């Protein structure tokens, strides 16, 4: 018999919360890097974009541009980023990673990957393969989902089915 979708959703939410907290921002704090989780995210996003203007960083991090300026000041003081003016529009400030910023980000990402691999290695190889496949499927569903179409809809979930 299938468990009720509400029960499974509760278990999923609790597990996801623990995982995102333990392997996300909390991990950065616990590994005692001299970077905050927000700074790591900013460095990661700048690297992803190669160069990134302050407005785009503010939008991605969902904060005011003035908050980005303060964060960039700190990262620049540590030598992890430098700022340049856009050649086409001098009002636009672009942040770029320095070699030191790239090295520090690689260090933090490497530690995170090492800890994730440790956790995953505790699972049986078949269980791990199934888990990753299911997680990839869920990520694909979430990426394609339109929240407004789901909210208030009358979709049929596991709570409406029973295995007899």
Automatic annotation (TrEMBL):
Q: Which InterPro entries would you find in this protein's record?
A: HTH_MarR-typ, WH-like_DNA-bd_sf, WH_DNA-bd_sf
The entry's protein name is: HTH marR-type domain-containing protein
Q: Which GO terms describe its molecular function?
A: DNA binding; DNA-binding transcription factor activity
Q: Where is the signal peptide?
A: none
List, alphabetically, the PANTHER family matched. Answer: TRANSCRIPTIONAL REGULATOR, MARR (PTHR42756), TRANSCRIPTIONAL REPRESSOR OF EMRAB OPERON (PTHR42756:SF1)
**Where in the numbering of this chain does the HTH marR-type domain appear?**
9-140
Keyword Transcription appears in the UniProt entry: yes
Which source organism?
Answer: Alicyclobacillus ferrooxydans
Give the keywords, sorted: DNA-binding, Transcription, Transcription regulation
Looking at the Swiss-Prot or TrEMBL record, what is one Pfam family this protein matches? Answer: MarR
